[in-house]
Design a protein that fits this description.
190 residues; alpha+beta; Alpha-Beta Plaits; 2 domains; four-stranded antiparallel beta sheet; elongated
C-alpha cells in the first residue's frame, strides 16, 4: 500500500508540474427593468438570458472579438445566474490571463447586444455591471495539490488491492489433518 501511495503522489506531482496552467476571468451583466416593467420580471429574464448565453446564436457574435470558433468558446465559457438578484456571471477559461478576460468580456458584450434587440418587447435590458480583468493567479490545481490527490488515490487503490487479493490457504498438518480451533482438541485419559 505505501508503494501505491508513493507512486500516486509521484504521478500526481508530475501531472501538476507538466500541465498547462489555466486562468479564469469573470464578468458580470445585470438585467434592468424598463420604466413600466415589474422588477420581478428582470429576475426572470436574467435567468432566461443566462440559459441562452452559451448558445451558438449568442456566441457567434462573440467569436470575432474572442478570435476562436463558437464551439471552442462554448467549451471555455460557463454562465451562472443568481436566484435572488437579476445578475449573470460569465466566466471564461484560457491558458493566458489576458485571453480569459477577453473571452469573458466578448461573451458579455454579445449577450447584452443580443438582449438589446428584444428590449422593447421584454421591457428589460441587460447592462454591463463589471468587466473581467486578467487574473493574477491560475485557477488550475497546483503541483502540491495534485501530488496530494495522487497520494490519496494511490493509497486507496493499494488498500483496495489488499482487500481483493486471494487469501492464503490453510496448510495441512503432517498426516493429512487440517488444524482446527485450539479449544476443539480431544483429550485422552482414563
Amino acid at each position: 500500500m505505501p508503494v501505491c501511495a508513493a507512486l500516486g503522489a509521484l504521478a500526481g506531482g508530475t501531472y501538476g508540474l507538466l500541465q498547462t496552467p489555466e486562468y479564469t476571468a469573470t464578468s458580470y451583466v445585470v438585467a434592468v427593468p424598463g420604466a413600466k416593467a415589474d422588477p420581478a420580471t428582470a429576475l426572470g429574464f436574467a435567468q432566461a438570458y443566462g440559459r441562452v448565453a452559451t448558445q451558438l446564436a449568442v456566441l457567434g457574435d462573440a467569436q470575432i472579438a474572442a478570435g476562436i470558433s463558437p464551439t471552442e468558446l462554448q467549451d471555455r465559457v460557463k454562465v451562472a445566474t443568481s436566484p435572488d438578484a437579476p445578475m449573470i456571471s460569465v466566466s471564461a477559461s484560457a491558458d493566458r490571463p489576458d485571453a480569459a478576460a477577453t473571452l469573458a468580456n466578448a461573451v458579455s458584450r454579445a449577450l447584452t447586444t443580443s438582449a438589446g434587440h428584444t428590449k422593447n418587447s421584454t421591457r428589460v435590458k441587460l447592462l454591463p455591471f463589471s468587466r473581467a480583468v486578467a487574473p493574477t493567479a491560475p485557477s488550475s490545481l497546483s503541483a502540491p495539490v495534485t501530488a496530494l490527490v495522487g497520494l490519496c488515490a494511490g493509497g486507496l487503490l493499494g488498500g483496495l488491492g489488499l482487500l481483493v487479493r486471494p487469501r492464503a490457504t490453510a496448510r495441512a498438518l503432517p498426516g493429512g489433518a487440517v488444524p482446527g480451533p485450539a479449544s476443539a482438541g480431544v483429550r485422552g485419559g482414563a
